[in-house]
Amino acid sequence: MTQPDADFEAFVRRRIDAIELRLAEAAAAQTAFTSDAAQHLLAAGGKRFRPLLVVLASQLYAGAEDSAIDRAAIVMELTHVASLYHDDVMDEAEVRRGVPSANSRWGNTVAIMVGDFLFARASSTVATLGTDYVMLQAETFARLVQGQIAETRGLTEGEDPLRHYLDVIADKTGSLIAASTVFGGMVCGAPPEVLSALAAYGEEIGLVFQLSDDLLDIASDASGKTPGTDLREGVPTLPVLLLRASATDEDARLLELTAGPLDDEAEVAEALTLLRAHRVMDEARAEVARRAEVARGYLSVLPQGHARDALSALCDQVAFRSA
Ligand code: FPP
Ligand code: MG
Ligand code: MG
User: Fold this and answer.
1) How many angstroms is it from 46 CA to the middle of ligand 1?
2) Which residues does the chain have with pLDDT short of 70?
3) What pLDDT shows up at residue 225?
């Protein structure tokens, strides 16, 4: 592995800072109210994971224009944030990024409209990049929505629960993260085999990202979100699915608590306590770590250098994140 390079790191930092300014501009609207509501979640922070992936992948080959990198990153982050406005309505989430969600602050209608507004801004930005980008963005949007619909509908007749869960998170999270790595490759003119490897890496690291997000929903009180949201909604994530597949007599109470949606806060707390101490949490963490290695494996096709090393380092950071 090459040593971290100060110039490379400084370049990435400069791009992320420039993207931050342009994101706020892209979310500016005709009225102060809409601007405030649209900038609300952006101003609250966030990891900017998708912009980072665009920037890193854009450095696999020389020649990417700064402006194209920034616009590609903005499209990904605006689409992501737009989906969060809608997601918090559907999940009735009150807190996001440590601040009140848009729906809890302004109501569902404003939250949905602001999500649409941000998606419109992502669309006008992607149009400046070209039709290949528009096509991938549109296909990704269709997958996001279908993943969300599949999650909402739940299991269909005869479907394997773990397969259903993995398909849902591939569509609702993996797709946009894969589009981010591919956008980065596109702006630096990466050849088709590298774009394919970036897509495979992005899908897998996206799964790792969502699996660890779902673990944090159980394990962390410091994620900036309310713990136990999936339990309240009755959405079974990996630890609950592993529990159902291997439960013993001792698990009767936890199985009962995790069988469907919970609206009693004492029961949510009880389920969280039991799950946090259960072996299925370690089994789920092991699966996350295994998949992070699968993601890393796809990088072997990429040219060696700082960009590839940074994408490799992200595998560990995403698998073992604490927020
Ligand atoms: C978060 O999942 C939600 C998503 C990753 C995407 C949901 C997709 C949509 C709402 C459709 C897309 C709409 C637009 C306008 C682009 P989660 O609830 O498991 O995660 P959380 O813990 O962050 O709430
Ligand atoms: Mg949610
Ligand atoms: Mg959701």
Assistant:
1) 14
2) 1-4
3) 79
User: pLDDT, tens digit, for every residue of 63-75?
Assistant: 999 999 999 999 9
d(CA 107, CA 89): 9
Other beta carbons less than 10 A from residue 148's beta carbon: 17
* pLDDT value, residue 2: 52
Per-residue pLDDT at 3: 53
Ligand 1: nearest atom to the Cα of 173: 5
Residue 172, CA distances (Å) to 22, 140, 182, 310, 319 in order: 25, 9, 17, 24, 18
Q: Using a 6 Å CB cutoff, which residues line ligand 1? A: 79, 82-83, 86-87, 91, 93, 115, 119, 141, 144-145, 148, 172-173, 213, 217, 225
In this predicted structure, what is the pLDDT of residue 4?
64
Q: How far is the CA of 144 from the centre of ligand 1 (A)?
A: 8
Q: Which atom of ligand 1 is nearest to the CA of 118?
A: 15
Q: Are 175 and 200 in contact (CB under 8 A)?
A: no
- Around ion ligand 3, which residues have CB less than 5 A away? 87, 91
- Sign, CA torsion 323/93/82/40: negative
Neighbours of 116 (CB within 10 A): 13
Do 171 and 206 touch, CB atoms closer than 8 A? no
